[in-house]
Automatic annotation (TrEMBL):
Pfam families: Transp_cyt_pur. It is found in: Membrane. Residues 1-22 are annotated as: Disordered. Signal peptide: none annotated. Keywords: Membrane, Transmembrane, Transmembrane helix, Transport. GO terms for cellular component: plasma membrane. This is Permease for cytosine/purines, uracil, thiamine, allantoin-domain-containing protein. The chain crosses the membrane at residues 86-106, 118-135, 156-180, 192-216, 223-244, 256-279, 291-317, 346-365, 386-408, 414-435, 455-473, 493-511. It comes from Pseudoneurospora amorphoporcata. GO terms for molecular function: transmembrane transporter activity. It comes from the Eukaryota. The lineage of its organism: Eukaryota, Fungi, Dikarya, Ascomycota, Pezizomycotina. It is a multi-pass membrane protein. Belongs to the purine-cytosine permease (2.A.39) family.
Length: 518
């Protein structure tokens, strides 16, 4: 029996439970109410497609699929009080083998285990601040992260960072499905190709991200438990070899230190571009300090531990023939399989579990991708969010299969670029909030979120971000380009992008405001 929470009758054609559910969207604005003749039994579906449509309708009406898109969440629908969900969400997103994969890049830059761990510790603690802070805006504004960005980047110019954010999150998703596919291939001893593993990971992700906010938080609440157990067992089985570190050829260079620091920061900073997507349904009175602490610890703590583990594994691979051979065959998945080999069949089962731990990260990322698709262009706003989950799966499979042929080259080249634009974008957004809005969410005109005439032009934000690259480009240290500053200091691109864009935004915004009047 369902009890009404507001005393109002339920909407026609919608169950009482859905009418009071925070994921429910106003039927008049997005779907046509369904008139049902209760005197006649519904005709049973016929054929495979009929069964799929019938079940899909039942799932949507039951409230398991989020119908709310990028429209701001009204205050009356921000009813979630379980703040701990934010901690379990970030914790589950981080408790998987992806941070291990990134940590394994430390030895690639000529760093020993101590240096790698110190860099991981410092730059993770530093770069976790923006995503944790931006999480606190969600309950106050009820807006997705890139919708909030319209208040500095404007209604139309914001499409540029949205497009870049789509590329970033989709690229991360490709890396994740490849890593999961490698694990599934390794546990099958080559009888299952990496390509098939990628398909399996993509389809499982589709199911979770299709359903939306409620299903996502429900899944993340428990997904970390088998992940932690599997990782602990893997360390217990293979930990005796971790002290066999292959010493680097010489002392760490400034270029190696800062380039690996950029890799670590580029793993963390992009989360800030979607942080509020996961907190918009919390009640507005939720203490900001609690959201920040839960987000900071849930995201930072497991990342530090697992990246350091990855650095230890990467340094030991050349000294352990079994690990080296497995790495040559299926990279990260092969090494984990070799570490768990002493556990026999149970070890192979745990490798499968480890591959599925990536779904916690992939599902949350995919959820935000579906929202970003709607923000990309006005015409896409009318397309239901959950349909973009299907489009995303169709993208991940072919791109993942193609990129898996040169995985670490693809990983290093991709990650090394995303930190630059993310830092420039966040420099503008955070300065606008702290300087122009005085850090007060009450200064946002919530009714103007989709009205270009009430929002800034966005020219100041774009100019500040683009101009910052005048200093970023000379400070980049990439395989295909090494700037004159980077030749001496190493890669300082993402640091300059953040601070320079923020500093330039202040005078440019003052001019824009004087000319435009808004």
């Amino acid at each position: 029996m369902v009890t009404q929470t507001d005393g109002n009758p339920p909407e026609k054609g919608v169950s009482p439970r859905v009418a009071n559910h925070p994921d429910h969207l106003d039927a008049e604005a997005n779907i046509q109410p369904i008139e049902a003749d209760e005197s006649k039994p519904a005709a049973p579906p016929s054929g495979l497609w009929g069964h799929l449509c019938h079940y899909g309708y039942k799932v949507i009406v039951a409230g398991r699929v989020e119908l709310q898109g990028i429209t701001p969440i009204p205050v009356k629908e921000r009813t979630v009080t379980k703040t701990l969900n934010i901690f379990t969400l970030w914790w589950s997103m981080s408790c998987n083998i992806l941070p291990i994969t990134f940590g394994m890049l430390g030895p690639v830059y000529g760093l020993n285990l101590r240096d790698s761990c110190l860099i991981i510790l410092f730059f993770t603690l530093l770069s976790t601040i923006p995503p944790a802070y931006l999480c606190t805006w969600g309950p106050k504004l009820g807006m997705r992260q890139m919708i909030q960005a319209r208040y500095s980047w404007g209604r139309y110019i914001v499409s540029l960072p949205v497009l870049l954010n789509l590329a970033t999150t989709t690229g991360f998703s490709v890396i994740i499905v490849i890593t999961g596919g490698q694990c599934l291939s390794a546990v099958a001893n080559g009888h299952l190709s990496i390509s098939v593993g990628i398909v399996i990971m993509s389809i499982l992700t589709l199911i979770i991200s299709f359903c939306g906010y409620t299903t996502l938080h429900m899944y993340e609440r428990f997904a970390w438990i088998p992940a932690v157990i599997a990782i602990i067992v893997a360390v217990g089985c293979g930990g005796k070899y971790l002290h066999l570190q292959n010493p680097p050829s010489g002392p760490p260079s400034p270029q190696g230190i800062l380039s690996f620091a950029m890799i670590v920061s580029s793993y963390m900073i992009p989360w800030a571009c979607l942080s509020s997507d996961f907190t918009t349904y919390l009640v507005p009175s939720t203490p900001s300090w609690k959201i920040f602490v839960y987000s900071y610890t849930g995201l930072g703590l497991p990342t530090i531990l697992l990246m350091c583990l990855g650095a230890a594994i990467g340094g030991a691979i050349p000294s352990v023939p079994e690990w080296s051979e497995a790495y040559d065959q299926t990279l990260v998945g092969g090494v984990l399989q070799a570490m768990l080999a002493p556990a026999g069949g149970f070890g192979r089962f745990l490798v499968v579990i480890l591959s599925f731990t990536l779904l916690g990260n992939l599902a949350a990322t995919s959820y935000s991708i579906t929202l970003n698709f709607q923000m990309l262009a006005p015409v896409l706003f009318k397309v239901p969010r959950y349909l973009f989950a299907i489009i995303l799966a169709a993208i991940l499979i072919p791109v993942g299969i193609k990129a898996s042929a040169n995985f670490y080259d693809s990983l290093e080249n991709f990650v090394s670029l995303i930190g630059y634009w993310c830092s420039a974008f966040l420099g503008v957004v955070m300065v606008d909030h702290l300087w122009e809005k005085k850090g007060d969410c009450g200064r946002y005109d919530l009714d103007a979120w989709n009205d270009a005439s009430k929002l800034p032009w966005g020219i100041a934000a774009l100019t500040a971000a683009v101009a910052s690259f005048g200093l970023v480009i000379p400070s980049m240290d990439q395989v295909w380009w090494q700037g004159p500053i980077a030749k001496t200091t190493g890669d300082l691109g993402f640091e300059f992008a953040f601070f320079v864009s923020g500093l330039l935004y202040v005078p440019l915004r003052m001019v824009e405001k004087k000319v435009s009047g808004r």
